[in-house]
Amino acid sequence: MIQLYGLFNQILRLVVIISLIKNFDAAINYKLTSFYDGTGGLTMDGIKNLSSWVEKRQTIVVLFTDWCNGSMNKLFNIQLNNIWSNKSIPLITWQITGCNGKKLPGVMKLIHNNLYDTYINLFGDRLKSWLAGNDSIYGTNDDRRAYIRLGMKYQGREYPSCFFLCQGKQSSNFCLH
């Protein structure tokens, strides 16, 4: 039932987005568009179908990734390549969560205390390599682009990194002193 509700919610969002794009096509024809389809670049069918229908390519494709070593292969070998091959730019939301959205209590302090340095460095190295393109040399014609945002705004209990506030801890735990 929850999956059915989630699917209905995604379809409803898609219909609203499409209707807005169709209704304001002449006014926004010169603007860059972005899209989040829920697959994060694993499949591009929804994005290609939307682009075909509104006769405009989605310039930016939003995706989410966690702080899980196992997610990096999927991100760098499949998702980013699919988005780039679609002639779109990935916007990577790097959520500070564990594998499968697992909450990481005290993660901000753990990051501050260098516990995640190995993971962060590996992620940075993989991103740098992907951005350099197939020849692994910056400044050539095959260089790639991506946007990255660190986490998202904390929106209450439904957000996986809300563990500080949701467990009655101080909001100052979000700040590094």
Structure in words:
This protein is an alpha/beta fold and 177 residues long. The chain has two domains: 1-31; 33-152, Alpha-Beta Barrel (TIM Barrel), CATH 3.20.20.80. 44% of the residues lie in helices and 10% in strands. The protein has helices at residues 2-23, 25-28, 45-54, 69-85, 107-112, 117-131, 163-166; strands at residues 34-35, 60-65, 89-94, 147-150. Strands 1-2-3-4 form a four-stranded parallel β-sheet, covered by helices on one side. Helix 4 (69-85) links the parallel strand 2 and strand 3 (89-94). It is flat and about 50 Å long. The protein starts with a helix and ends in an 11-residue tail after the last helix. The model is unreliable at 160-166 (pLDDT under 50).
Record keyword descriptors for this entry.
177 residues; TIM Barrel; 2 domains; 4-stranded parallel beta sheet; 10% strand
| Count of all domains | 2
Count every beta strand, where a strand is a DSSP E run of 2 or more residues: 4
CATH architecture of the largest domain: Alpha-Beta Barrel
* Average pLDDT metric: 75
Which topology of the largest domain does CATH recognise?
TIM Barrel
The percent range for strand residues is: 5-15%
The side-by-side strand order for the widest beta sheet comes to 1-2-3-4
CATH superfamily of the largest domain: Glycosidases
Number of helices: 7
Indicate the radius of gyration in whole angstroms.
18 Å
Briefly summarize what is shown.
The protein is an alpha/beta fold and 177 residues long. The protein has helices at 2-23, 25-28, 45-54, 69-85, 107-112, 117-131, 163-166; strands at residues 34-35, 60-65, 89-94, 147-150. Strand 1, helix 3 and strand 2 (60-65) form a beta-alpha-beta unit.
